[in-house]
Amino acid sequence: MYLSKIMLTGTACRNPYEMHRLLWQLFPPDADANRDFLFRVERSGQQHAEILLQSKRQPCAETDRMRILANRDYTLRLRNGQRIQFLLVANPVKTISDERGRKNVKGAVKKCRVPLIREKEQRAWLERKLNDCAQIETLVIDPKLPLNFRKGKGYVAGKIQPLSFQGVLTVKQASAFEKLVVAGVGPAKAFGCGLLSIANAN
């Protein structure tokens, strides 16, 4: 894998979904490729954004709206019992049935995602995502600014309420935890959520 610091400029910096579409252009064209990168906005303004990018492929195709500020190999070498500092910006949600009972095309009641409000629920969500591969020692949860975006041909508007999770955890199953770091945590990865940054806490 690779970790990169990317500078974006232009109007895409106002829309996290457009940032995601722009970041695709850093990689060689591949019609069969699935999204194989995660990103997080570290700093942003109306016309610029500094992005932390984790990717399986090495980014290389700079454009007039994107510059690669730094790039390095990122190899995970974790072990059971290791204590890790972590930072995660994520979108903790739960799925509920439509309150008005509206149906989808198959005739079933529609489902929708709603944000988790209580800190107890937010912590439990993260513990489920860690899925027994790691145990939380300390945790601080802070709200981030809402992410407003437009996507699709009709430019449908939406909003995400991300949270910042920071703390220390202990690795219980190293191989499973590595897979989680590679895959990312939770939904809204196309909007800059899910990148789990780690560093040795020992």
Describe the structure using short key phrases.
202 residues, alpha+beta, 4-stranded antiparallel beta sheet, 15% helix
Can you describe what's shown?
With 202 residues, the chain is of the alpha+beta class. It has helices at 16-24, 119-130, 174-183, and strands at residues 2-9, 37-44, 48-55, 66-73, 83-90, 93-97, 111-115, 134-143, 147-151, 156-160, 163-171, 196-200.
SSE blueprint and pairings:
Elements: E1 2-9, H1 16-24, E2 37-44, E3 48-55, E4 66-73, E5 83-90, E6 93-97, E7 111-115, H2 119-130, E8 134-143, E9 147-151, E10 156-160, E11 163-171, H3 174-183, E12 196-200
Antiparallel strand pairs: 1-3, 1-4, 2-3, 5-11, 5-12, 6-7, 8-11, 9-10
Question: Could you provide a short overview of the structure?
Answer:
By secondary structure, the protein is of the alpha+beta class. It has three helices and twelve strands.
Order of helices and strands: EHEEEEEEHEEEEHE
N-end to C-end Cα span? 23 Å
The number of distinct helices, counting runs of at least 4 residues, comes to: 3
Give a quick account of the main beta sheet: strands, pairing sense, barrel closure: 4 strands, antiparallel
- Computed Rg: 18 Å
Fraction of helical residues: 10-25%
- Tell how many strands the DSSP assignment holds: 12
Question: Kindly state the mean pLDDT as a whole number?
Answer: 88
Basic shape? globular
Stretches where pLDDT is under 50 for at least 5 consecutive residues are none
Broad structural category:
alpha+beta
Q: Name the beta content range.
A: 35-45%
Q: Trace the largest sheet across and list its strands.
A: 2-3-1-4
